[in-house]
Amino acid sequence: MLASRIGRIKPSASSTAAQRARELKAQGHDIISLTQGEPDFPTPEHVKEAAYEAMRRDDTRYTNVDGTIELKEAVCAKFRRENGLAYAPDEISVGTGGKQVIYNALMATLDPGDEVIVPAPYWVSYTDMTVLAEGVPVEVPCAPGHKFKLLPEDLERAITPRTRWLILNSPNNPSGATYTREELKALAAVLLRHPHVWVLADDIYEHIIYDGFEFATIAEVEPQLCERTLTVNGVSKAYSMTGWRIGYAGGPKALIGAMAVLQSQSTNNPSSISQAAAVSALTGPQEYVKGRTEIFRERRDAAVKILNTAPGISCSSPEGAFYVFASCAQIMGRRTPQGQALRTDEDFVLYVLDAEGVALVHGAAYGMSPYFRLSYGASLDEVKEGCRRIARACERLS
Ligand SMILES: Cc1ncc(COP(=O)(O)O)c(C=O)c1O
Question: For the whole model, what pTM was predicted?
């Protein structure tokens, strides 16, 4: 009954872990969920107001398949203002979340056997989407010693005649790794030698960076790559709009057109009301975004500090996004009070959930073990309490 392609992919591990946490909570268990990739802040009032207004105006019908002209213009203005990128409206694609935009791009460009370079650790969906598009994900491990960043020589080695894309996610989910302008320049130098390789720059965490770090994106750093770069972004993380489902990308017109054809035969346009809200998010006041980053920074610092006191856990301070990617290598082989040996990072996160009610996602889901990802999209109190419980769970191992 089911197609073989379904057997080749797996459900998103972070969504599965979040779902499990919600179910346990609903059953009355005391659960702290540090799984989900979303900020706990509400969507700003002026954005919600724009949605109400869109409904009152009866902006409740089909729109252009890949976005209203108002939203495309707002996206062009954002790219100009924040990234120094000069996209025209017909070089913009708007979809139901950055997720759909990335999916469309891979589906529109990959032939069977085409390769996609995915630096690991990576966002769970890149590899499965590549497989769905009949491509081959080529995972390139990025060592913690290099802050989980792709090195130019490793990129060079991974490129073959079948390579179609490099997916570059900065700040990175799950590691928080954020590429400097110089680091991007060095990767761009490799790509300039391989004109058949395109770059998908996933900048969805652009605004969540710390310690005075200056965000840069590859098409801006190396304008010669513009004609083969898709710059992906969205309103989910920056404006706390995960449920509104609006993501967008700038890229060459032919690619954008192909993505629109695909979208016209799947979901058609994203919600007209969400698009109006996204216009307001992108064109309205921006100051609060920075304020929120300060709040994330406080949570990050608390999480890193407490986790590093947990026996067997170690982590560094991420440069961006709202995750800590912590090593549990020293835990491997230890035994729970019930005598079970913890052999994988999945064993560890299941133990922590069982023993202390803290939900995390295991590193294997992101292509790197033995690690776990902790999201500090939750409140400071929850993050602190969650980390204390993790430490307590580690102390009970022998
Ligand atoms: C790295 C990365 N890219 C893209 C997305 C997609 O976000 P959305 O579809 O909500 O725009 C996510 C969401 O978790 C993400 O972590």
Answer: 0.96
CB distance 120 to 369 below 8 Å? no
Q: How far is the CA of 68 from the centre of ligand 1 (A)?
A: 21
CB-based pocket (< 6 A), ligand 1: 37, 97-99, 123, 169, 173, 202, 204, 234, 236, 242, 247
- Which pairing describes strands 229-234 and 247-250: parallel, antiparallel, or unpaired? antiparallel
Distance of CA 267 to the CA centre of its chain: 22
pLDDT tens digits, one per residue of 131-183: 999 999 999 999 999 999 999 999 999 999 999 999 999 999 999 999 999 99
**If we measure between CA atoms, which residue out of 79, 103, 104 comes closest to residue 89?**
79
- Please count the structural domains in the chain: 2
Q: Which of 218, 248, 283 is a domain's end point?
A: 283
Write the pLDDT tens digit of every residue in 272-325: 999 999 999 999 999 888 889 999 999 999 999 999 999 999 999 999 999 999
What range defines the domain where residue 350 resides? Answer: 4-42+288-395
Q: Element (H or E) spanning 175, and its range?
A: none
Q: Ligand 1, residue 96: give the atom nearest the CA.
A: 9
**What is the rounded CA–CA span in Å between residue 167 and residue 144?**
19
Burial class of 325 by CB neighbour count within 10 A (0 to 12, 13 to 18, 19+): buried
Same domain, 89 and 228: yes
